[in-house]
Write a structure and sequence with these properties.
Structural class: alpha+beta
Distance between the termini: 24 Å
Mean pLDDT: 83
Strand order of the largest sheet: 2-1-3
Helix content: 40-55%
Protein name: Hydrolase
Strand content: 5-15%
Order of helices and strands: EEEHHH
Length: about 110
């Protein structure tokens, strides 16, 4: 069995660290290296979709509801929260439940 280690995660900055530093502890998880790699990939996907959505926002003729980068960002964000929920402690689970991002079709 692979060893799980403690990580501090901040979605806004995309940071995943084993060291607590300033405000990087929005979420505390216990994960294997493979699980951290999966989370890193999802955070990178969110960043890329955000970047693409930024450029799309400069095209005024494209309506917001027809915005694949925005849809991609939202889908990746839900996946990130699902991973955090799965790997987090009770405080993480309670917080994610309180914001309702996973609704009933996950967890």
């Amino acid at each position: 069995m692979l060893e799980k280690k403690k990580y501090y995660v901040d979605i806004g900055s995309g940071e995943i660290s084993q060291e607590k530093y300033q405000n990087n502890d929005s979420f505390i998880i216990h994960a294997t290296q493979d699980e951290v790699s999966m989370l890193r990939a999802k955070l990178n996907n969110m960043h890329e979709a955000s970047y693409n959505s930024f450029w799309r926002s400069h095209v005024p003729i494209m309506p917001y509801h027809n915005d694949k980068p925005n849809d991609d960002y939202d889908a990746n964000m839900v996946e990130v929260y699902q991973i955090l929920y799965d790997l987090g402690d009770d405080a993480v689970k309670n917080h994610i439940n309180s914001i309702g991002i996973l609704s009933d079709n996950h967890i």
